[in-house]
Amino acid sequence: AKNGLLIYIVNHEGRGVGPFDHIRVYQEQDKGFDTVDSYRVLHLPVDKRNYNGVKPILKWFHLKKINLLTNNPRKIKALEKMGFKVQHKPLIPKLTKYNQSQIKAKVEKLGHLIS
């Protein structure tokens, strides 16, 4: 059996801008902006999350290698910088007419690892 660990970082809502501004970002998306430009039009950082709080948790579990479920290269690099060996496990989105433009923006503008 494989084990897993889910770490939920409270202040990461809306890529670190908080729930209030995250709602504002969604309102901009409703106007036609993609997920990246919605932050920019509101003069918000596109991604201000910090992953430093994860290190003591992973150390407490004596982890040196992790399988990380993400498409975000910033998360992978952050954990590698902390000294962890990271095996990237991609999340495969089901593309629909509702999410296709947002996924495309994440790939093209944020470098997300989705093929």
Overview of this structure, please?
The protein is mainly alpha-helical and 115 residues long. Helix content is 41%, strand content 9%. It is built from five helices and two strands; from the N terminus they run H-H-H-E-H-E-H. Helix 1 (18-30) packs across helix 2.
Rg of Cα set: 16 Å
Tell me roughly what share of residues is in helical segments. 40-55%
Derived structural class: mainly alpha
Major sheet: 2 strands, parallel
Please state the overall shape, judged from the principal axes of the Cα atoms.
globular
User: What is the tally of helical segments?
Assistant: 5
In short:
The protein contains 5 helices and 2 strands; from the N terminus they run H-H-H-E-H-E-H. With about 120 residues, it is mainly alpha-helical.
Record keyword descriptors for this entry:
single chain; 115 residues; mainly alpha; two-stranded parallel ribbon
List the SSEs and their pairings:
Elements: H1 18-30, H2 35-41, H3 54-60, E1 65-69, H4 73-81, E2 85-89, H5 100-110
Parallel strand pairs: 1-2
Helix pairs in contact: 1-2
